[in-house]
Specification:
- With 499 residues, the chain is an alpha+beta fold.
- The protein is built from 16 helices and 16 strands.
- It has 3 domains: 156 residues, 3-Layer(aba) Sandwich (Peroxisomal Thiolase, Chain A, domain 1); 213 residues, Peroxisomal Thiolase, Chain A, domain 1 (3-Layer(aba) Sandwich); 74 residues, OB fold (Dihydrolipoamide Acetyltransferase, E2P) (Beta Barrel), CATH 2.40.50.840.
Length: 499
């Protein structure tokens, strides 16, 4: 390899993770302190010289605490002065975006040493709120940068039905995809159990996992008081476990700079390719709920001859996401969809999970895996990012080429139906979501309906309507395509009546 090539080849040289489950919440570390620990660990991982040389720092937006200038505070705490220190917007895909952008900047000479870091202390925050006594953290910056979505991302009709949290929106995709694939709900559950059981086993091999780990599939599926239904058909063990204290950091430089710092070449992992594409922010503005053109475009851009079996991290906030991704990549259900342990079992430090996944992939490649695929997504199957890592250098032209995944996604996207907020008359079920009470019982159902005119609307069924709930939760079939009628109400969204 020529020196010119080594000067430009971006590599990950340092990885660091930190977690704590404090007995004394008053003494727990806040997110900024946990991030500093992770960066210090990443610095030790690559020999101790990199931290002082960082000239670009990307901080993943924390959701458990707010700071006026988190990136600046981290610099002061670590006694470093990067020329560029940025706190970015929220989204589960953002760590991969930051790593990819850092790699491009290094390859094009705009940066020498870059770092990506994030962390959450949601476990401590929730514990402190329950105890009624907060730990001595930095003052909460009410006027600081906020992780909240921009206004308008959720349609007013969705808000009326309680469809604004991911927990209550992803079931729309779960039902629509499974029905499209010809599965019954029972068959869809069986696929979920296989994917998550293997993820839980992998989490059991990862010393950084929060837990629970090594859960059999039947325990993951079974609703119990400790594993209640949180949004049908999801039990608590099927979805991301966010109450964790975890942080992670990645240090990136060029191969030549790494060698100059005394980092062995076999310790370096090459960043070879990335791709990104988005769907419309408003999840009601989708052509359908059984596919994502943006996800297709990103994963197909990164697909290789070994995609069906290679090491991969397929984002696992809800089971439907790795289910969709594995079909695009041609992966069997028995092939692991994670190298980390998944967000239900490793833990889900909100926006920062993919930094931990990157650490896990780096470890796997250092141990001999030839390459790996990292795929993350944000919001409601909305923001998609993929990244390829490798034991060997890649083609810099591929790393630096203009990513056309968004253009491909936009061309593949079908027509979006108009949304009717005050609908009535005959309609068919396009998909549905059942929101749960704290005891796991159904609160109400939101029916995504397609009117005879082709327009789309949402309608409500109260959880107390037992016959209707039994119809929706029948494990032998999905009600997708069933006919009914939307009836206007005096207040709120239309109600759904079965025909």
């Amino acid at each position: 390899m020529s020196k010119t090539s080594t000067e430009r080849q971006p590599v990950i040289i340092g990885i660091g993770e930190y977690s704590e489950r404090p007995d004394n919440i008053a003494k727990s570390l806040e997110p900024s302190e946990m991030m500093a620990r992770a960066l210090e660990t990443a610095n030790k991982d690559c020999g101790g010289q990199a931290l002082a040389k960082i000239d670009s720092l990307d901080v993943v937006m924390p959701m458990s605490w707010r700071y006026s200038d988190l990136a600046g505070e981290l610099g002061k705490a670590l006694n470093i002065s990067p020329k560029r220190a940025v706190l970015g917007p929220s989204g589960g895909q953002t760590p991969l975006k930051y790593i990819h952008e850092a790699a491009i900047n290094i390859a094009e000479g705009r940066s020498k040493v870059a770092a990506v870091v994030g962390g959450e202390a949601q476990y401590s925050l929730v514990s402190a709120q329950r105890a009624g006594q907060m730990p001595s953290w930095s003052p909460f910056a009410s006027d600081g940068p906020n992780f909240a979505d921009t206004p308008g991302a959720i349609h007013p009709l969705s808000l009326q039905l309680g469809l604004y949290l991911p927990l209550n929106i992803y079931p729309l995709f779960e039902a629509a995809t499974a029905a499209h694939w010809g599965q019954t709900p029972q068959e869809a559950d069986a696929e979920t159990a296989k994917i998550l059981e293997l993820s839980s086993f992998i989490a059991g091999q990862n010393p950084n996992s929060w837990g629970p780990v090594n859960m059999p599939g039947e325990e993951i599926l079974k609703a119990t008081p400790k594993n209640r239904i949180v949004a049908w058909p999801y039990t608590k063990s099927m979805v991301a476990s966010m109450n964790v204290n975890q942080s992670a950091a990645i240090i990136i430089t060029s191969l030549q700079t790494a060698l100059d710092m005394g980092v062995a070449e076999d310790h370096c992992v090459f960043i070879t390719q990335g791709a990104a594409a988005n769907e419309p922010r408003d999840f009601l503005a989708r052509a359908n709920y059984y596919e994502s053109p943006a996800q297709d475009a990103v994963l197909n851009a990164l697909k290789s001859s070994s995609s069906a079996t290679e090491a991969a991290e397929l984002y696992s906030c809800f089971p439907v996401v790795p289910k969709m991704a594995r079909r695009i990549l041609g992966r069997e259900v028995e092939t692991a969809s994670t190298v980390t342990g998944g967000m239900s079992f490793f833990g889900a430090p909100l926006n920062n999970y993919m930094t931990h996944a990157s650490c896990a992939m780096v470890r796997k490649i250092r141990l001999g895996e030839p390459a790996g695929l990292l795929y993350g997504q944000g919001e409601y199957v909305t923001k998609h990012y993929g990244l390829r890592l490798s034991k060997t250098p890649g083609d810099l032209d591929i790393l630096l080429e203009n990513d056309d995944a968004q253009e491909i996604a936009d061309k593949a996207r079908g027509a979006v139906p108009d949304i009717v907020t005050d609908a009535k008359g005959p309609a068919q079920v396009e998909s549905f979501a059942i929101l749960s009470n704290r005891d796991g019982s159904p609160s109400h159902a939101a029916i995504m309906a397609r009117l005879e005119s082709g327009e789309r609307s949402l309608a409500k069924i109260e959880g107390s309507e037992s016959e209707a709930m039994a119809w929706l939760m029948d494990k032998s079939r999905y009600p997708i395509g069933d006919k009914g009628r939307l009836v206007k109400t005096d207040k709120g969204p239309s109600s759904w009546q079965r025909l």
